[in-house]
Please model this.
Amino acid sequence: MSGGVLSGRWLATIGLALCVASAVLPLSHSMVQRTMRQHQAEVFGRSWVALVTSGDLQKAFHLTADASRPTPPAEPNAPPKASPYETFVGQPVIKALEAAGKDANIRISDTLEFQANSYRSIVVRQLYEVSPGSASSSGASTKPVDFVLSVQRATLPRESMSRWLVTSYAFPKTDANPSGAQ
Model:
């Protein structure tokens, strides 16, 4: 064989390797990004649930999308409406989580949805199970609280960096509980 054929074979092998790499890299990059963002969402979600179970509701509220929205002015001659914070504190899910106590066991059962609109706009919905810790009062319920937490990484108006926010929290919908409320 001549030297030209051997160098051509190496060039063809290198070209094939580059083709395979260019097909695999976008998939692996996507998988790595998903894994990283999902882990970030889990860490953020666990810390948010820990804030609620410890009773630090003010801090937990400030990490929700509702806290970042401006409060509309009250309408004249209308009865006063509850503030967004009062509405947050009155939610059945929040009450159930707070009742679990600060030593509650927080576990993610499943990731229900991962949606990446862009690298700065990501929505993750996860199913959580929170059971009261061993230090909970003897009168407290020991039944675990299952709920779905949705978090979003987004850039808010007037901010340059994207951050995680809680967008919703609800009891899961089941055949016995079609509305998601308990």
Observations:
- Helices lie at 3-53, 57-61, 65-68, 84-89, 92-100.
- The chain has a mean pLDDT of 83.
